Each structure stands twice: as structure tokens, then as C-alpha cells.
Amino acid sequence: MSLSHALLTSLLEKSSSGYDLARRFDKSIGYFWHATHQQIYRELGRMEEALWIASVTAPDAGKTRKRIYSVLPLGRAELGRWVGEASPVMDLRDELTVRLRADAVIGPLGLGVELERHILLHRDSLQRYREIEQRDFPPDRPQTRRLRINHLILQRGIAYEEHSILWAQQMLAVLDEEG
Question: Which of 96, 150, 164, 171 is at 20 to 30 A from 18, Cα to Cα?
């Protein structure tokens, strides 16, 4: 996936300035596709050159260069083309897992502290995801197809964090074993 496709999706949800887009991105797609604000601005420039998006000066720009970006028909077509492609299965690269393999070969390397840190980080993410779920998907709120899709994406994140905590706790127990 390229950043441009994530940005097209976000801009189709709501036309935005670069700054507002980057902030929204951090709070939505950014949970599973990371990009810096600088990368986002660079990509917006490329997308505008490709005629996937257009920008106009924001009404509240004043003396700034604030622009509002929106998706053009070529951008919508590109997103449709990309969505139709086969997706690769997620490629897992996890440094901690390699360190644990080293521990299995060499012997105890004191990775318990690092596992405990990972557990805390996953708990923080899990709490944040659950807060988002309570705020955005209360049980009494009727859910459109779009909301149900977004809820299931969030539930995938929740399941990932729950599993990561459980796995790290199990690994911690094994590392604490003697011999």
C-alpha cells in the first residue's frame, strides 16, 4: 500500500487542509499505517501533480499558505484500481522476536524487562482503542455499513493488542522458568 491510497481514502471521507488531514490521519488510519506530517505534505504535492487531488486556498488562510485538498475523478479512479488489486499478507518484522530467539540459543539475556515494557505499551494502546470504541460505537447507536466496517477495523486492533499482551505474558512466564 502506498501512502497516497491512504490519503485518498481520508480525503474522500472529508476534504481537508494538509494540517487537518495529518491530524485526522494520526487519529484514524495512523493506527495501522504510520506517516509523518512531512511525508503527508510531500505526498499531497505528488498527488496534486498526478491530478488525483486539487487544492484551493482555504477561506481562513489569511496570509498563510493554507490549502484545502479534495479528490478529483482521477484520484477516485486510482483508488478504485488499487482496491481491486490483490493485497499481500502482512509481513511481520519484529525485532523483539529475534531477540527472544537469541535468548533461546544463548541463554537468559534479561529480556523480561523489555517484555514488561511491551506489555505496558500494548495495554496503553488497548485502553485507547477501547475508549474510541465506547465513544464512537455505543451499543445503542444505529450503525451504517460504513460505521460497521470502521468498528470491525477497530475490533481487529483491539484483538491484536489483547493477543499481544497475552503472548508477552506467556513468554515472560517461560523466561522466568529455570533451566
Answer: 150
pTM score: 0.81
**pLDDT of 68-124, one tens digit each?**
999 999 999 999 999 999 988 877 788 999 999 999 999 899 999 999 999 999 999
User: Which CATH number applies to 3-83: 1.10.443.10, 1.10.10.10, 1.10.220.30, 3.90.1150.10?
Assistant: 1.10.10.10
Map out the domains of the chain as residue ranges.
3-83, 95-175
Q: Where are the alpha helices (DSSP H) in 37-89?
A: 37-49, 73-83
* CA 32 to chain CA centroid, nearest Å: 2
